[in-house]
Amino acid sequence: MMEEQHIASVFDRDLEAVQARIMKMGGLVEQAILEASEALEARDEELAEKVRRDDLAIDDLEALIQEECARIIALRAPTAGDLRIVLSIMKIAGNLERIGDYAKNMAKRTSVLVQMQPISGAHTALRRMAREVEGMLRDSLDAYIQRDATLAKDVIARDRDVDQMYNALFREFLTFMMEDPRNITACMHLHFIAKNTERMGDHVTSIAEQVVYLVTGETPDEMRVKGDKTSTDPSVAPDVPRSGDA
Amino acid sequence: MMEEQHIASVFDRDLEAVQARIMKMGGLVEQAILEASEALEARDEELAEKVRRDDLAIDDLEALIQEECARIIALRAPTAGDLRIVLSIMKIAGNLERIGDYAKNMAKRTSVLVQMQPISGAHTALRRMAREVEGMLRDSLDAYIQRDATLAKDVIARDRDVDQMYNALFREFLTFMMEDPRNITACMHLHFIAKNTERMGDHVTSIAEQVVYLVTGETPDEMRVKGDKTSTDPSVAPDVPRSGDA
User: Fold this and answer.
1) Which residues form a coiled coil (chains A, B) (predicted)?
2) pLDDT over 90 for what percent of chain A?
3) Which of A151, A156, A174, A244, by CA, is between 20 and 30 Å from B137?
């Protein structure tokens, strides 16, 4: 019994340490999203370059977290419930790393876009979309620490807004391209940025789904009303019903 | 000593079982790539629908493999070297799952593209690209089972060909769009398919990198000549040198 308590407390200390790293990683990713979208709107090449450099620290943190989680599993041989928590941390670290990559990609495209004629309004709309995703990420990490399934489900619901922002931008870019072929190259970049921001939202959603699963045991399929997010992308299936997606 | 041998052999049995699942998953993903590109070229909606359905089995296998790996780590408390192997399996399962998603996405876009005027030559070029990626995937999984770092490095090198195929298609689609705005929507879909196929190649490369790491201890940064693959994407940085990517 004493023994068990001892093991439990050691596991909890390990868990706190790695969860602190997840929070640090989350903070860096939030910063990357905001700075990347700010660099895009302000056509600020230096800030874009900084975002690209800073992504290395995010990648290093992910590798460190994966190693630590594996070490915890190996050393503590956690119970099923505790194992579920460690696995969720490994998944969340993976989601954060990918969101960071999308922010880096946005920064790369910015370095190219500054050489082109700006597309009026697009950068502001993209920044609004990025801000929404950053807010969802902050809430999903809070929900994780607080084990707050209600907040996590709220984040999952808000992803629909991001999908709608993307859909609106997609149609806007199509119009710009059809109006003037000289806009095509710039719009291709902006469309990729919009698409990648929408994907960031999908990864934030999967973090929130991890939280709901941890707290309630509900799996994503059970909690997700719609199917695969990509089916909400008009560039995939504007007229195909989501049900056709399962 | 006997004890150690016993534990080792139990670990090896577990490992063989989960590696068999990885091979099964790999086979399903190879099939998805080939069928998705065949459906695209033949404008075969039924085959595209089959690819979308079959992706569920791939997702289920991934979840199963992740659980089994966690169970192995928890029960066998493997040595550092064995732990590295189990972690590599978890990473490879994740890569395979994402490749399967891209194949599903290709199938979804096919269901939309069949309603549009075909873009001459594009589907054949895309299928060639998909075939190349499928071959790389097969070799990377063989390299994993054989612990063949040479074959794995060959796969990593071949990813440059896939990047070049993508770059060529990207410029082709731009031309089609500029020539006739009525091509824009179809070209946007085809461009996403090309981009996603190039991303499949990146995930195959990361599987091959896992193999090299397992066999030689070399990390991706050490073995990768170029930096982040996205920097080879002309839609990201046509004129930015790769060195500017680090």
Assistant:
1) none
2) 66
3) A244
Task: Answer yes or no: are the C-beta atoms of A143 and A209 closer than 8 Å.
Answer: no
Cβ–Cβ below 8 Å for B188 and A189:
no
Is the per-residue pLDDT at A244 higher than 90? no
Q: Which of A54, A104, A112 to mutate to test the interface with B (most CBs of B within 10 A)?
A: A112
- Domain B2-245 = CATH 3.90.180.10: no
Cα distance between residue A144 and residue A93, in whole Å: 12
Q: pLDDT confidence of A181, banded at 50, 70, 90?
A: confident
Q: What number of other Cβ atoms are within 10 A of residue A76's Cβ?
A: 20
Whether residues A108 and B230 touch (CB distance < 8 A) is answered with yes
Which ipTM was obtained for this model? 0.71
Query: Average pLDDT in the B53-66 region?
Result: 95
B228-241 pLDDT, tens digit each: 444 334 444 333 22
Domain ranges of chain B: 2-245
DSSP state of B231: G
Chain A residue at shortest CA distance from B183? A178
